[in-house]
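Build the 3D complex.
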Amino acid sequence: MNLSTGETMGRAILNRDTLLAWKTITPQQWPRLLQGLLSTFFEVGPRQLEEFLRCIKAGQKYQALRWAHTLKSSCGTIGAEQCHDLLESLETLKEEEWDKIEARAGEIETAFKLLLVELKAFETTEFEF
Amino acid sequence: MDYRNQILVVEDNEVSRVVMRIILERAGYDPFFVGSGSEAIRAFAEREFDLVILECNMSGLTGYQTASKLREIENKMGSLRAPILGISAATEGAIRGRCAEAGIDDVIGRPFRAEEIVEKVNLWCALTAAVTDEVSSVTVWQ
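Done.
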């Protein structure tokens, strides 16, 4: 069963299956893993996004792409497919396509906000019982 | 004595560290985490590890640069060659070539799959153990 929600552009804002896959692999450690994963993501994800956006505004291309790469890894780990793909798409852009990076940053910011909402909802569902 | 393999994990992403810790501890390993290449170099010079896992695309010293430095330390100290596994989103031929040049023995793909990590870590730790046993027996017989 595919539990993906909030799908746009064919990719899920949060693919819950990615997170639930950890549950099947580590059933005993699942609550600990999920708590650790989510609390870490809620703490570092917004910071990584903030740094990425700050570097874009400052025109620091290399640093912006570094933060994009870091945030991409975080997103990939928790199943944030849409954010992951948007961030990954920056890596193939050329130097002269900087304006596209700036434009895409807005999309990433929006997708990230939706992701946080989805994650909160997922957290509530998992710790309900 | 219950020996748990000592693994140095060099990962600058905190989210990935959480996942890696759970996977490795569950598989019975003793991971030691550092967040940068320079910290890894310090740790590696101070104590022995059975295996190193490092992110290839870290900021600051990259995983490739860090691996080369670790190999230099091993050569200088005359210690046994610890397997180094790189973590990379891309695992195709070009990346593997770059890894081999830097002294990285194998690549773990991203996003993480617990089975892949455990399988590769088990394999490389077993190889390390076999080499260590061989060296020990040679020393005994000399």
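Residues 98-126 of chain A form the longest helix (29 residues).
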